[in-house]
Design a protein that fits this description.
By secondary structure, the chain is mainly α. It has one domain. Helix content is 55%, strand content 0%. The chain is built from three helices and no strands. It is flat, with a radius of gyration of 19 Å. The relative contact order is 0.16.
């Protein structure tokens, strides 16, 4: 077993990438809020997450919780307000995304500190 290729650490690393892309999309929406010809970039990656997680989360026993068959999107694709940038919604999504990013980075830092402590034998 390779220490640096643990499945959970890989998921956390990938989640940081997703949160970074989501942050960029939200920032682009905010930057172009006053542009009348600009169309909002969708920042809901739940469909992408579902396809990525299908290979990892498997319910192979009767008592396992199965993956939902359909992930509900926060914003409907055909919604006309989807095209316009709502600064309040964008700022809320930005704050939510930042919290998720900070949590994932702290989890990754804790894992690396524990790994470092186990390799060096030092706890501080």
């Amino acid at each position: 077993m390779k220490v640096f290729e643990l499945q959970n650490l890989g998921l956390v690393k990938k989640s940081l990438d997703v949160y970074t892309k989501q942050h960029e999309a939200i920032a682009k929406n905010i930057a172009n809020a006053n542009n009348p010809n600009y169309r909002r970039v969708n920042t809901d990656f739940s469909a992408e997450l579902k396809t990525r997680m299908e290979g990892i989360l498997k319910a192979d026993k009767d008592r396992h919780i199965a993956m939902p068959t359909q992930v509900q999107s926060k914003v409907k694709e055909n919604d006309s307000s989807q095209k316009e940038v709502d600064l309040t919604r964008e700022m809320g999504e930005l704050a939510e995304n930042q919290i998720r990013f900070e949590f994932a980075s702290k989890v990754l830092a804790i894992n690396y500190r524990m790994l470092n402590a186990s390799i060096t034998g030092k706890t501080q």
